[in-house]
Design a protein that fits this description.
Strand order of the largest sheet of chain A: 6-7-8-3-9-10
Distance between the termini of chain B: 30 Å
CATH superfamily of one domain in chain A: P-loop containing nucleotide triphosphate hydrolases
Helix content of chain B: over 70%
Shape of chain A: globular
Radius of gyration of chain B: 22 Å
Number of helices of chain B: 16
Structural class of chain B: mainly alpha
Structural class of chain A: alpha/beta
Number of helices of chain A: 17
Largest sheet of chain A: 6 strands, mixed
Strand content of chain A: 25-35%
Largest sheet of chain B: none
Number of strands of chain B: 0
CATH class of one domain in chain A: Alpha Beta
CATH topology of one domain in chain A: Rossmann fold
Strand content of chain B: under 5%
Helix content of chain A: 25-40%
Number of strands of chain A: 22
CATH architecture of one domain in chain A: 3-Layer(aba) Sandwich
Oligomer: heterodimer
Chain lengths: 517, 369
């Protein structure tokens, strides 16, 4: 007799207003398998997950867990049915210890002391069974990102989960941490757990899953065994058409440095050393990629280069003019006038004001430009025209600049930001996370644009958490770890293993180029 | 766990929703009145009659509204810059002091000049009183809510000291200053109307109502048409984006708070230069605080604030008449009704949002078929 599938959905539909987020989604996930779900941002992955986890209720359709039709009114009912979700953004209380975090909400009895004792015994058993070695009495704030993720997974197992939903689990991990996660996923599978693995990285799907479902525009377009498909087929299924890069990097010689960073140190917001004596140059006609695990000084580096953070020592020069040093700090407005554009790494936090309209955001940072403002008065019709031009040039949709930026998708927000920053023909571009939260179709276009700018002789510095992205667009890749520049690797010598080891601080650059050459 | 209701069209959002909220507030108020054994419909008619029934009543209604326009605008300007100015009361007191000093200093030498100086004095003193908390917020991170509240007490004590000391009317026993010289008061509104040939009964309503309307227009212009207004709104909504755009958040904070203080300070024009013609202790009577409710009800939009200010004028003037006519309804109950309006229209503006959105969606669907 065959075992009932762990998860089966039949024609799940979910509508928000006029948007059909999920349209007759039917899914079949075998028990004890790793099932991948891929799709672009906005394809309906999150909606599906949230229905599986009881966060949303479907408008129609059936949900069958282990052969039993169920309807979840809340996440706690889903948890009771053995479904747990590990969110992309961890749901942990940082000052609490691992043990406290795990029993939070599942204490089971009013007296904490007994609950802790019981939980500790149970957790030690689970740790042994699944090969965890988490320090139960250490505050979560002292754990690495990878360890925090394991706390989340242990938390799910502690609650008796048989089905684990991992939402973009590798987005924040180093390559080595990813390998550890994959090992854990395989172990969980061998112990009979079912895992739903949501990602947009196709090589991960190929590496870890048994079967894969592709979702596009709220519908299931493909559901197949992983062994019988290829990354190209999946990519095509995701976007509905073949996508390929049309722009290639042209050879460039005779370069001259445009941005010079010399021995720069800077403090973080909390007064720690965020940057430690960093030295590098960015040349005309090149893309310098900056790799590193999030929080190793990349944010502070971007801020130092764009006039948002003072240096504590060292100097930054743009076109031979000192822009940031002990006694000089040119602000963002001045730098923009000098031809430096800044595409902020955290779009919604820094790059736009989400509640203001696209038109109002079209002049953010350029509100002093004489095209937009004279004698302190805004030139509203010129601003409207500029916004419309930006919408046309980058094909921003929906084509309505009077909507607040928050109502556009991430990709369209980024298009607007790019249009705004390119409008003044900048010679130097400082770009953070160019494709974070952007659909796969738009990713390629953004990569092409970066390469075009490079070919046109601009100097670009790109910080990204996505190594594949950096390998695709960079001429050289600088790796940061603990606020130091570990080394700069020319693209022909760069591979994921080398860079991963450098990101983890385990080794320097193999053929480290002399940074100030 | 449902998502935020769908967007409503602007007119529904701006007009229908506040109207429905006020209706709910009136309904609950009606229940209270009914519970006291009075006829709620008769009470409502008395309230409206008291606010609009005769020319003097209308004058009073708009006279009170003038105070609320100034203090409501003051709160909203600070709010657009991301700050909660609770200090309107104290800033109004200092504004009153500023205009009094200007008028008394000039004496009756040049009445027109003295009115002009009085307006400037009110704005400058109000702004200066807001500057200190603003500077502490911008440079030292002292929370503006706390500091502005404390500055209200300081202002009140300072004014009390001046009015029983250096500024007290010579030989007087009351905490009030000497009378302003003849001719330095603002033109009364019935005099303004007489100039264009309209006869209107005398009331405390005076030319500062027009100044308040101009201030509302000025605030609208500042917010939507000037670079500073834009920078202020950016800083108020997202300080990180402001820094990214090269906006100095501390500069914007200080200037916006000073503008806010200047607007609150100008409330004294109505009370002192328009009606009392002398500085009296605690002339602000809580108008500075009600300005918070007015700003919220008006959704921080200058036009909305003018409308909300008129509504509060109605509640003040009509409420006073109602308390006079109905013995069971005391002055305190009027405050309860005002509180209910603030609660439903100011503090819980989204109470009816979901049902209205559903209804609207259903109507839109029917219309589409």
């Amino acid at each position: 007799m065959s075992v009932a599938p762990a998860i089966e959905t039949r024609n799940l539909c979910k509508r928000f207003g006029a948007v059909q987020a999920n349209d007759n989604v039917s899914l079949l996930v075998d028990q004890g398998s790793v099932h991948g779900i891929v799709g672009e941002n906005g394809a309906g992955k999150s909606t599906l997950l949230k229905m599986l986890f009881g966060f949303y209720q479907p408008n129609s359709g059936d949900l069958i867990i282990n052969g039993v039709p169920l309807a979840f009114d809340s996440p706690s009912e889903a948890m009771a049915a053995g479904i747990a979700m590990v969110h992309q953004h961890f749901m942990l209380v940082e000052p609490f210890t691992v043990l406290e975090n795990i029993i939070l909400g599942a204490e089971g009895q009013p007296m904490l002391k007994h609950a802790m004792t019981d939980a500790r015994a149970k957790l030690l058993g689970l740790e042994q069974q699944f090969g965890f070695d988490l320090p139960l009495d250490t505050p979560v704030s002292q754990l690495s990102v990878g360890e925090r993720q394991r706390v989340e997974i242990l938390k799910a197992l502690f609650r008796g989960a048989d089905i684990l939903i991992l939402d973009e689990p590798t987005a924040v991990l180093t390559p080595q941490e990813c390998d550890q996660l994959f090992d854990l996923v395989r172990l969980l599978k061998s112990r009979g757990k079912t895992i739903l693995f949501v990602t947009h990285k196709l090589h991960e799907i190929m590496a870890i899953t048994d079967a894969v479902t592709v979702i596009r525009a709220g519908k299931v377009v493909t559901c197949t065994a992983t062994a019988s498909t290829t990354p190209d087929d999946l990519a095509e299924a995701m976007v509905g058409a073949k996508i390929s890069r049309t722009v290639t990097r042209e050879a460039k010689d005779h370069r001259s440095p445009r941005l010079r960073v010399d021995g720069v140190s800077a403090l973080s917001d909390h007064g720690h050393d965020a940057l430690k004596a960093i030295t590098f140059d960015v040349y005309d006609g090149e893309v310098l990629g900056v790799a590193g695990v999030a929080g190793n000084g990349q944010t502070e580096l971007l801020e130092v280069l764009t006039g948002l953070r003072p240096v504590s020592s060292g100097r930054v020069e743009l076109d031979g003019i000192l822009i940031n040093a002990d006694d000089v700090q040119r602000g963002p407005t001045k730098l923009r006038q000098m031809g430096l554009a800044h595409i902020a790494e955290d779009r919604l936090k820094t790059g736009v004001v989400a509640t203001m309209t696209a038109t109002e955001n079209a002049i953010l940072g350029y509100q002093h430009d004489p095209d937009f403002c004279q004698n302190g008065l805004l030139k509203l019709s010129a601003i409207d025209r500029a916004a419309n031009t930006y919408f046309d040039s980058q094909d921003v949709r929906p084509r309505d600049p009077t909507l607040p930026v928050a109502s556009f998708s991430g990709g369209n927000q980024q298009k607007l930001v790019i249009a705004r920053e390119l409008a003044r023909d900048p010679q130097t571009l400082i770009i953070g996370q160019p494709t974070r939260g952007v659909d796969i179709g738009a990713v390629t276009k953004i990569h092409d644009q970066i390469t075009e700018l490079r070919n046109a002789g601009k100097a670009l510095l790109v910080v990204s958490a996505d190594l594949d992205e950096l390998m695709a667009i960079s001429d050289r890749i600088a790796v940061m770890c603990g606020g130091e520049l570990v080394g700069i690797v020319p693209i022909q010598d760069a591979d994921e293993r080398t860079l991963g080891l450098m990101m983890a601080g385990a080794s320097g650059a193999p053929h480290s180029e002399e940074a100030s050459a | 766990m449902s998502a935020v209701p769908a967007k409503l069209p602007g007119a529904v959002e701006a007009v229908l929703m506040p109207f429905l909220n006020i209706m709910v507030a009136l309904f609950v108020s009606g229940l209270v009145v009914w519970g006291l054994g009075e006829d709620p419909f008769f009470a409502l008619s008395l309230l409206i009659e008291g606010a609009f029934g005769y020319e003097e009543a209308i004058g009073y209604t708009f006279y009170y509204a003038t105070n609320f326009i100034f203090t409501g605008l003051a709160v909203s300007v600070a709010f657009h810059a991301g700050h909660f100015n609770i200090g309107g009361e104290g800033q109004a007191m200092l504004g009153g002091l500023g205009l009094t000093l200007a008028v008394l200093w000039l004496g009756d030498t040049a009445p027109v000049l003295s009115i002009f100086l009085a307006i400037i004095g009110a704005a400058v003193f109000g702004a200066a009183w807001a500057f200190i908390p603003a500077w502490l917020q911008a440079k030292r991170g002292s929370h503006i809510v706390i500091t502005t509240i404390m500055f209200n007490f300081i202002a009140s004590a300072f004014l009390a000291y001046l009015l029983v000391g250096p500024l007290q009317r010579p030989g007087g026993q009351m905490p009030e200053s000497s009378d302003f010289p003849d001719g330095t008061g603002l033109m009364q509104f019935h005099e303004v109307l007489e100039m264009v040939g309209i006869r209107f009964e005398q009331s405390p309503l005076n030319a500062s109502f027009l100044i308040a309307l101009m201030a509302a227009f000025g605030v609208w212009f500042l917010l939507t048409r000037t670079r500073f207004g834009y920078e202020m709104r950016v800083a108020g909504k997202n300080a990180h984006a402001a820094a990214f755009a090269g906006v100095s958040v501390s500069r914007v904070t200080i200037i916006a708070l000073m503008l806010s203080g200047a607007l609150a300070g100008m409330m004294g024009l109505n009370e002192l230069l328009g009606e009392q013609l002398r500085l009296i202790g605690n002339f602000t009577l809580g108008y500075g605080f009600v300005g918070i409710a007015v700003a919220f009800m008006g959704r921080n939009h200058p036009l909305g604030i003018v409308l909300a200010a008129v509504l509060f004028g109605v509640l003040y003037q009509g409420g006073a008449e109602l308390a006079f006519e109905m013995p069971n309804i005391t002055r305190d109950l009027i405050v309860v009704i005002q509180g209910l309006v603030i609660l439903f229209a100011g503090a819980m503006p989204h109470l009816l949002r979901k049902p209205v959105a559903l209804l609207y969606a259903r109507m839109a669907r029917k219309g589409a078929v």
